[in-house]
Amino acid sequence: MRRPPGRRTGASLYAEAREIVFDFLSDYDILGAFWTTVQLALLSAVGSLIWGTLLAAMRVGPVPLMRGFGTAYVNIVRNIPLTVIILFTSLGLYQTLNITLGADRSETANFRLAVLGLIVYTSAFVCEALRSGINTVPVGQAEAARAIGLSFSQVLRLIVLPQAFRSAVGPLTNVLIALTKNTTVAAAIGVAEAALLMKEMIENEAQLLLISAIFAFGFVVLTLPTGLFLGWVGKKVAVKR
């Protein structure tokens, strides 16, 4: 039996509806926004790991002044909202003190300052994660190393920190996942990452649920494999005691 002329099938109606619903996505650079998020997370993670390790060394060190600085830094920074730190990097450092970190454009300066703010904030949590790993290293190992003439820095670098990192993979994984999600705060100073694009799309399009689902899925793709992989690494390198 022939279909009447002009009558469309269910498949064609579905294809047309899908095109209407998803067609607006081509007007936005979603992959570019998530790439900016990835760059923010990676650069901040490296910087936080370096500065957090130094803070942990200060907190367990023999010098009272450095130990006091590390303790004060961690306790103060952990209790300041990340939004306040990010806004300070833009309003305080960039607009007031004209600190651009070598950038010649405001977009680049805001990106670098956002990385700086994330490092300042996240390193406090990295420090505590590493300090928990340091506490798992038997005291006798450090005493034996000092007994054979190693300095504090040598004991920390050769004996304590390698074991502390292996014990702290789990807590550091949680910090990295939290950092990835915290990159959304960079939208507050105009960094063109995923959260800023999501806000723009919601303002321009009448597709709230779809847009929210797309960005939620994007962050799941970023964080879930990282958590699973680092969880597997943590089990492989765990110190058997």
From TrEMBL:
Query: Taking the first listed entry, what is the main subcellular location of this protein, grouped into a coarse class?
Result: membrane
Protein location: Cell membrane
Q: Tell me which UniProt keywords the record has, alphabetically.
A: Amino-acid transport, Cell membrane, Membrane, Transmembrane, Transmembrane helix, Transport
The UniProt transmembrane annotation reads: 33-58, 79-97, 109-127, 208-233
What's the protein's topology in the membrane?
Multi-pass membrane protein
Q: InterPro entries from the entry? A: AA_ABC_transptr_permease_3TM, ArtM/GltK/GlnP/TcyL/YhdX-like, MetI-like, MetI-like_sf
Source domain of life: Bacteria
Q: Which Pfam families match?
A: BPD_transp_1
Q: Which residues form the ABC transmembrane type-1 domain?
A: 34-230
UniProt lists the family membership as follows: Belongs to the binding-protein-dependent transport system permease family. HisMQ subfamily.
PANTHER family (alphabetical): AMINO-ACID ABC TRANSPORTER PERMEASE PROTEIN YHDX-RELATED (PTHR30614:SF37), MEMBRANE COMPONENT OF AMINO ACID ABC TRANSPORTER (PTHR30614)
In Swiss-Prot or TrEMBL terms, this protein is called Amino acid ABC transporter permease
